[in-house]
Amino acid sequence: MRKYGILLMSLITLACSESKETRMQRYLMQGNEMIEQQNASEAERYFKEALRLDSCFADAWNNLGTLYYNQGKYDEALASYNHAVNCKPGYTDAYLNRANAAYETKEYYLALADLDKVEKVKPDTVAVHFARALVLTKLRKFDEAIIRFQKARSLDPENIEIRVNLGTLYYYKKQYDSAQLIFDEILRVQPEEPSTLNALGMMAIDQLQYVEARAWITKALSIKPDDAYFLNNRGYLLLMTGDLENARKDIDQSISMDPYNGWAYRNKGIYFLKTKQIEDAIRLFKRAEEADPFIDKLYLYLSEAYLQQKDFSNACLAYKKAQQNGEAGNTTLKPCK
Question: CA-to-CA distance for 65 and 99, rounded, in angstroms?
């Protein structure tokens, strides 16, 4: 899924006198200016100078959290947003920001609780419905997520990113006709929208249409050649068509670019499974599970790896998880009696 969200920063106008409050606001504004100039270290210093004057300056905590979030320091961002809302209850911008950080740290129910708070005050905020849809998708509540994506789309009908995510969710649900309608609609407006091309490629792989899949993913990569997700998906396609070594190269490059994508670890596990390196396959499947236990066919592949080791007990446990997750497919042997 593509991330869409608004990380809101506080903008405050300076007062006339050099009071403590004025100095705090000046540091806040200077920090914001440093962010605009992409000088993160100076921005952090200014926000912390403001907090030295008042350790409960909620706007500085909020902006510091956004600085950390944009650096991928999600735990630090979450801690900063915690300070912001504790110092200023009802601070809707900080609650929305904390929901985004909680999504990244997999604290999905905290994210939902924060989004509830924001929605009560700002029910027609696009980012609220979009963020909720992303969280619901992670929780496998696909039908509820669709409703939220549709609400976000009704509020911002020209937003391509919303439509890409809605189409991708239909693809996750294997509702290919609905996904195709949305993707076709996007391509009529933006014929080279790369995430749509990539999603069409993945949908073609699902339907064993490998020639079409290669065409879609190749086109997506021609537009964004350094996209880790697109590279990983091409690697998966190559795995499915037997080009194992080129698949490995794509997947390894994807992992080096984005070491947090569980799908890439699943795909590297498939590579090891296909090359009979079973211990490594199990290790990579477990790594994928840590990142996201709902990755498609993860437990089917893990069950197969255990079967190759004749570890029927763990093979059965993994197979049962596959069934619980609704994974489609079969292992080479029936792992559970």
Answer: 12
Give this prediction's pTM.
Answer: 0.86
User: First and final CA of the chain: distance in angstroms?
Assistant: 37
- Measured between alpha carbons, how far is 266 from 188 in angstroms, rounded to an integer? 34
DSSP 293: T
What is d(CA 269, CA 271) in angstroms, rounded to the nearest whole number? 5
Give the Cα separation of 86 and 132 in Å (integer).
22
- Please name the residues in contact with 78: beta carbons below 8 A apart, sequence gap of 6 or more: 65, 98, 101, 102, 105, 107
Task: State the CB neighbour count (10 A cutoff) for residue 295.
Answer: 20
- For residue 201, which of 242, 171, 181 has the smallest C-alpha distance? 171
Alpha-helix runs per DSSP H in the chain: 20-36, 40-53, 58-70, 74-87, 92-104, 108-121, 126-138, 142-155, 160-172, 176-189, 194-206, 210-223, 228-240, 244-257, 262-274, 278-291, 298-308, 312-324
**pLDDT digit string (tens) for 194-242?**
999 999 999 999 999 999 999 999 999 999 999 999 999 999 999 999 9
Q: What is the pLDDT of residue 12?
A: 54
In this structure, are residues 22 and 53 in contact, taking their beta carbons and an 8 Å threshold? no
Residues 6+ apart with CB under 8 A from 283: 269
Percent of the chain's residues with pLDDT above 90: 90
Find tokens 């929901």 and name the residue: 99
What residue type is assigned to position 125 of the chain?
A: T
Angle made by CA atoms 9, 12, 14, in degrees to the nearest 5: 150
Q: Which of 123, 179, 176 is nearest to 154 (CA)?
A: 123
Q: Please enumerate in sequence order all residues whose Cβ is within 8 A of that of 253, keeping only pairs 6 or more positions apart, or say none.
A: 228, 231
